């Protein structure tokens, strides 16, 4: 998988909800973790690798052994989320922030 970078317009596409967690979604999740680790990141959204489904993978552990998968996540406090995003290291925003 290749990580998209700004100004790539594909990053603006709205991700669709995952309807069913099946073997294909598991393959996508596995590939996303592999890509995230290769990029030395701590999180990756499917849209960042040109897959427009609501999937996020995260691993902030030192040993890279505590995987977290978010399927169809929702934010409830938009203002707090916007403030948090200002502090996040995003692989698609290399040298932008």
Automatic annotation (TrEMBL):
<dbReference type="InterPro" id="IPR036821">
    <property type="entry name" value="Peptide_deformylase_sf"/>
</dbReference>
<dbReference type="GO" id="GO:0042586">
    <property type="term" value="F:peptide deformylase activity"/>
</dbReference>
<dbReference type="GO" id="GO:0006412">
    <property type="term" value="P:translation"/>
</dbReference>
<keyword id="KW-0378">Hydrolase</keyword>
<keyword id="KW-0614">Plasmid</keyword>
<keyword id="KW-0648">Protein biosynthesis</keyword>
<keyword id="KW-0408">Iron</keyword>
<dbReference type="Pfam" id="PF01327">
    <property type="entry name" value="Pep_deformylase"/>
</dbReference>
<dbReference type="InterPro" id="IPR023635">
    <property type="entry name" value="Peptide_deformylase"/>
</dbReference>
<keyword id="KW-0479">Metal-binding</keyword>
<comment type="similarity">
    <text>Belongs to the polypeptide deformylase family.</text>
</comment>
<dbReference type="GO" id="GO:0046872">
    <property type="term" value="F:metal ion binding"/>
</dbReference>
<protein>
    <submittedName>
        <fullName>Peptide deformylase</fullName>
        <ecNumber>3.5.1.88</ecNumber>
    </submittedName>
</protein>
């Amino acid at each position: 998988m290749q990580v998209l970078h700004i100004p790539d317009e594909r990053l603006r596409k709205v991700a669709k909800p995952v309807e069913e967690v099946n073997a294909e979604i598991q393959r996508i999740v596995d590939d996303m973790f592999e890509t995230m680790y290769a990029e030395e990141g701590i999180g990756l959204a499917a849209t960042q690798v040109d897959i427009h489904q609501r999937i996020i993978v995260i691993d902030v552990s030192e040993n890279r052994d505590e995987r977290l998968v978010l399927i169809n996540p929702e934010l409830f406090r938009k203002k707090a989320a916007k403030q948090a995003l200002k502090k996040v290291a995003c692989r698609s925003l290399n040298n932008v922030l």
